[in-house]
Each structure stands twice: as C-alpha cells, then as structure tokens.
C-alpha cells in the first residue's frame, strides 16, 4: 500500500434515540450526528504534509442535516477517505436523512461520500487482530494524544470536540506509521505533524 497524496480522516460522533411512537420514521431507532472532526493531510513533493482540521459540534441535536452537509462539503473527489470502523460510520451517515424532514438535503452529502469511497478508503480497523483499537491506543500514547478511546462520548461539546480532534490525529499517525517507509520523507511528515499538534494545542 502506498501512502496517499491527499488523505481525509473523518471521525463523527453519533447518538441513537428510540422512538417507537412515530410511524413515519424509517426505523424506531433514530440516528443523529452530534459532532465530527475532519482532518485533511496533503503531502507535497518535498515529503512534508500540510494539515487542516475542522471540528463541529451540535449539543442540541437539532442540526443533524447541517452537520451532514458540512461533512460532505469537506470530501474532495480525489481524496482518500480514512477512519476507524468506516463500515459503521458509513452505515450511520446513510441513516441520518431517512427520518428527517430535510431528507432531500441529505442526498448531496451522501453522494459526495459515495464518490470519496470509490478511492480505496483506509480503515485502521484492518491494522490489527483487535479491530485496530490496540494500534490506536498505542499510537495515541506514543504521540501524547488525548483520544481516550476507552471512554464514552461526553455531553460537553468542548470535551467532545477535543477528543474527536485527537482521535483524527491518532488515525493519521497510525496510517503514516504503517504506510510511510523509513527515511527522510517519513521524518519530514512527522515533523509536520508535530508542528501541527503544537499549533492545535496552543489554540486550546
């Protein structure tokens, strides 16, 4: 496997609500997106990587379609999509518009997701026999990232955003450690990553 030139890592947070009384719904288990982090990593010809991050939270639970549209807008057609447990992520994202009064608005971001998935996505769940979780814990510890893979989602939007950001960066580091060969390009890539981490931490 070759490390991609353009990588987009998605880390959404979902909430599920049981609503057996509404017969209009596709399912009695309604799925909402409460937050997401997206990390873009573009590799230059000199081996250095430029990072760009976006984190959005919706603690009220009323902006599911808005967040879905914002996520879709971040997916460029030529990017390689990456994450952890992409099958669950994609299945949940597809559910979002089905029970919404704004179902038609959800079609465009789902099409953008479909196009991105055509570029051979990367799932850290494939990286070890434990579904990738062992890899992610080790990488987070190595880079001092507070991804907190063992903790449940927080109701505090600030904590949620920080954790999703750290998880997105952990996923990038796991992919880079696995796919970048030892040498100058790898050193430059992780130097760029360290600079980005310092910049993110300085803004908190």
Summary?
This protein is of the alpha/beta class and 204 residues long. The chain has helices at 64-73, 86-95, 107-117, 133-143, 157-179, 184-202, and strands spanning 6-18, 29-43, 49-57, 80-83, 122-123. The protein has one domain: Nucleotidyltransferase, domain 5 (2-Layer Sandwich), CATH 3.30.420.
What ranges have pLDDT less than 50 throughout 5 or more consecutive residues? none
Question: What's the CATH topology name?
Answer: Nucleotidyltransferase, domain 5
Question: What proportion of the residues form beta strands (DSSP E)?
Answer: 15-25%
User: What is the radius of gyration?
Assistant: 17 Å
Shape: globular
The run of helices and strands is EEEHEHHEHHH
Helical content stands at 40-55%
Output the structural class.
alpha/beta
Major β-sheet annotation: 5 strands, mixed
CATH class: Alpha Beta
Strand order of the largest sheet: 3-2-1-4-5
Distance N to C terminus: 35 Å
Proper CATH architecture: 2-Layer Sandwich
Number of helices: 6
> Count the strands?
5
Number of domains: 1
Average the pLDDT over all residues and give the rounded result: 89
Topology diagram in text:
Blueprint lengths: L5 E13 L10 E15 L5 E9 L6 H10 L6 E4 L2 H10 L11 H11 L4 E2 L9 H11 L13 H23 L4 H19 L2
Parallel strand pairs: 1-4, 4-5
Antiparallel strand pairs: 1-2, 2-3
Overall description:
With 204 residues, the chain is an alpha/beta fold. The chain has one domain: Nucleotidyltransferase, domain 5 (2-Layer Sandwich). The chain contains six helices and five strands. A five-stranded mixed beta sheet has the order 3-2-1-4-5, sandwiched between helices. α5 runs antiparallel to α6. The mean pLDDT is 89.
């Amino acid at each position: 496997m070759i490390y991609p030139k353009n990588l987009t890592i998605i880390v959404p947070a979902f909430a599920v609500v049981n609503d057996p009384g509404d017969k209009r719904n596709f399912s009695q288990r309604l799925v909402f997106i409460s937050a997401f982090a997206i990390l873009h990593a573009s590799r230059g010809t000199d081996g250095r990587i430029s990072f760009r991050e976006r984190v959005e939270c919706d603690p009220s639970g009323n902006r599911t379609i808005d967040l879905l549209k914002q996520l879709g807008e971040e997916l460029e057609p030529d990017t390689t999509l990456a994450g952890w447990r992409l099958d669950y992520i994609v299945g949940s994202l597809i559910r979002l518009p089905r029970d919404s009064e704004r179902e038609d608005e959800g079609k465009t971001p789902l099409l953008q997701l479909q196009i991105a998935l055509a570029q051979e996505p990367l799932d850290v769940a494939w990286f070890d026999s434990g579904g990738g979780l062992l890899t992610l814990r080790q990488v987070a510890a190595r880079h001092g990232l507070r991804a907190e893979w063992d903790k449940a989602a927080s109701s505090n939007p600030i904590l949620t955003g920080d954790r999703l950001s750290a998880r997105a960066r952990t996923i990038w580091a796991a992919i880079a450690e696995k796919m970048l060969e030892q040498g100058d390009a790898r050193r430059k890539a992780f130097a760029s990553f360290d600079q980005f981490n310092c910049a993110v931490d300085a803004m908190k």
